[in-house]
Design a protein that fits this description.
Elements (H helix, E strand, L loop, with lengths): L4 E5 L19 H4 L14 E6 L5 H12 L6 E7 L3 E8 L6 E6 L1 E2 L2 E2 L5 H9 L6 E6 L2 H9 L6 E5 L20 H19 L7 H9 L4 H17 L3 E2 L3 H4 L2 H14 L16 E2 L3
Parallel strand pairs: 1-2, 1-8, 2-5, 8-9, 10-11
Antiparallel strand pairs: 3-4, 4-5, 6-7
Helix pairs in contact: 5-7, 5-9
The chain binds magnesium ion.
């Protein structure tokens, strides 16, 4: 199954030449759109474009995409997804497989509630199908740093669009995504498993560990250590101790890993987070 790519763009001074917050009536898509955007602002069966902005007017933001994508408002219906700190507008166009998503800021006392784009990016991702790649473009180095600092957003490749280059959209070389989104979801499931398992009342110590191994599956600690080894492997490519193979193939852990293979069409042990041709497991000395 081929998956679309997702490209998320900031609006002011990423797409626009001048900032539109104060004097939006001065500017139109015709006189205020950077050139060169057509290379990345693609929206078809294989590409999805979305906007994450602090702007307050989603229709105005959309108006800049219409000529770029040759879309007609007559064929559009709008869906509103209100969220706590921002709102996502979904613009559905006839003949388009995916809607265009625009996240705009909510304001309190004249200030946007959110100070960065991390929550909008998470919510946009959650409102898209699973994509093969996620890219984020912004003229704000601060916003980009927030994204690269957030481990759960490391599926994004981030691009600085210098706002000192006014008329031409010319992003700098990206900071490449570290992990794919499906791997991030797998890590989340494993972390939830650890929390549940950690909180479970079945704790075996001493003789208990012996019996738990023999009659009740692997001990809680063996399972949690195995999950830690697996999470570390997914993040760094560092091989997993062979002793963890048993706990990973047992009970709910086996189910989580099997579900991953079924959902995303790949086995976890084939995931190579770094260029690394070693097997997933390493023999204990
Ligand atoms: Mg901007």
């Amino acid at each position: 199954m081929t998956r679309p790519t997702a490209t998320i763009l900031d609006f002011d001074e990423t797409i626009t030449i001048r900032h539109t917050a104060r004097n939006k009536s001065l500017y139109t898509p015709a006189n205020n759109t950077k050139t060169g955007l057509e290379k990345v602002a693609l929206h078809d069966d294989d590409h999805i474009v979305a906007i994450a902005t602090f702007h307050y007017d989603p229709d105005y933001v959309l108006s800049y995409l219409l000529p770029l994508l040759q879309l007609d408002l007559a064929d559009m219906h709008k869906e509103v997804v209100p969220l706590t700190h921002h709102t996502i507008y979904k613009y559905h166009f006839q003949g388009k497989k995916y809607p265009i998503l625009i996240s705009i800021a909510e304001y309190k006392n004249g200030e946007p509630i959110l100070k960065d784009k991390n929550i909008p990016l998470r919510d946009i991702t959650g409102n898209l199908p699973l994509c093969s790649e996620y890219s984020f473009y912004d003229d704000s180095p601060q916003n980009l740093k927030k994204v690269t600092d957030a481990e759960d957003l490391s599926y994004f490749s981030t691009y600085l669009v210098p706002n000192w280059i006014k008329e031409i959209f010319s992003p700098l070389a990206p900071r490449k995504a570290k992990l794919s989104y499906d791997v991030i979801l797998l890590i989340k499931n494993l972390e939830n498993y650890k929390i549940q398992r950690g909180a479970s009342p079945h704790e075996y110590r001493g003789w208990g560990s012996f019996f738990s191994f023999n009659f009740l599956g692997y001990s809680k600690h063996a399972k949690i250590r195995a999950v830690d080894g697996l999470i570390n492997y997914l993040k760094t490519g560092e091989q997993i101790d062979i002793g963890h193979q048993g706990p990973l193939s047992d009970g709910n852990l086996a189910i989580i890993l099997d579900d991953f293979s079924k959902s995303y069409g790949r086995n976890w042990y084939d995931l190579r987070p770094q260029i690394d041709q070693q097997p997933a497991f390493i023999l204990r000395e």
